[in-house]
Amino acid sequence: MKAPLVLVVDDSDITRTVLARTLGRAGFATIQARDGLEGAVLALREQPAAVVTDLEMPGMDGYQLVRLLKSDPASAHIPVVVVTSHGEAPSRYWGLRTGADAYLTKDHEATDLAATVQRLIKVAPAPTPPSAAPPAGPLDVFARVVRQLDGALMQATLANSLLERGVSSGDFSETNLVVLRTVADVVDVHALAIAIAEVHTVTVHVLLPEEFPDRGVEQLARAVLAAVPVNPGATVELIVNGDRNSSPAPDLSALYLMPLPVRDSRGVLAVLPKDAAQFAALSQPLIERLAGHLALVLDNARLSQRLRELSMLDGLTRVLNHRAIHDRLAEELQRAQRYGHPLAVVLCDLDHFKRINDAHGHPAGDAVLLAAAQALRRCLRTADAFGRYGGEEFLAVLPESDLESGRQAGERLRRALAEQAIALPAGGSAVVTGSFGVASDSELLETATASVLISLADQRLYLAKEAGRNRVNP
Predict the structure, then answer these.
(1) Residue finishing a domain among 246, 278, 310
(2) What is the pLDDT of residues 58-108, one digit of tens each?
(3) Helices (H), 124-137
């Protein structure tokens, strides 16, 4: 059996000789190089089973040699052992970070080197077929170094741009768009998408750099959702940035799906390239190397959003909590007073809610509160604000609405609540009604506060209860 070939790289003649004899006694064949440049030429040309190199050498040092060998597809499979007089932690850290497979100091036992090389050769991946001729000499090696440095610089620049733009994004949706636009900067695509699937929600964000068929967006969304299985009952939100047309659906056979390592959820990046072959050769490896950065930006955005939600949303119903809805009312009231626009509020109290808890238990009460909040919120406009004001009380803030518009909105809310049969956790269902009080800022002085407006709506709510419940007052 042919002895495995090991390349020894060191600028010291004595050290090279000692290392070569040690490896020779262990059954390895060796070739030698006096510096990193000569070592790179031999490694790429001779394809040894392993490389043993020093760090400190004139010209191309060991760090640069390791980086080149591990970045070049023709030599990335070759195990590299660093043998150096440096035992400091920073030297060891950087040597391993550049891609070295093992790190030994020059005071190691002779058997350690042979055993390490033997172990690494056994687990080394199979070589890939060469895509280019081996280097003819030092100039070819320098050209490869320059390409490797350019590639690393491009990746670092992209990662830095992604992190800067992602950190400055205002919310999770905007961060998704930042990630997609960053990818679009380096890939020629028809369309891009990101899907993040959590327990109760799935967000699919699509970016169309140019006009794209409307049916194609639907197909793209289905393909992305299939890659991140959606939990039953989860809400799917599709956000599309870009223009659509009525052209026939495109061919999605070249669609590339890359999992994103997002914590506590399932994420995927979808890329529909214009040129599949060019994408596979040039852009796909770059995107895959950026996967960790993409996921980090998305993770940070999700964490920031969750922290905002914890401070603003009611934990059970997921609508605005008492403080947040009161603050929103104060903001809208100030805006209405400044510009002379009407503003109405609707205060709702669920009728006989205590009976639900007494008869069916608190889990049933929680289910009723959640279903009621969802039913009421669906009846409101996007511009309206809605929150849980108290135990079973909900408050709706209606900009650009006078008292009559507020009363009509209150009636829609009342009907939506009364017409809904709410499933209970233990089985069966319940129908819950509500009493509503409506007030408008036009009834008050211009200096009226949010608390005064709520107080007026509260008084009318209790009049509705005294009048028999399940009604709107006025």
Answers:
(1) 310
(2) 888 888 899 889 888 888 899 999 988 766 667 777 767 788 999 888 777
(3) none
Band of pLDDT at residue 148, cut at 50, 70 and 90: low
pLDDT class for 368, splitting at 50, 70, 90?
Answer: very high
How far is the C-alpha of 407 from the C-alpha of 298, rounded, in Å?
42
User: Do 239 and 104 lie in a common domain?
Assistant: no
Q: Does 158 map to a domain?
A: no
Q: For residue 68, is it within any domain?
A: yes
Cα angle 412, 415, 417 (rounded to 5 degrees) comes to 110
Q: 39 in helix, strand or coil?
A: helix
Give Cα separations from 367 to 106, 174, 202, 255, 362 (angstroms). 69, 32, 22, 41, 9
Mean of pLDDT over the chain: 88
What's the CATH number where 442 sits? 3.30.70.270
Does residue 199 have a pLDDT over 90?
A: no
| 453: containing domain | 322-473
Structure tokens at 234: 């989860």
207, 336, 462 from 450: Cα distances, Å: 41, 12, 19
Taking residue 204's Cβ as centre, other Cβ atoms within 10 Å add up to: 24
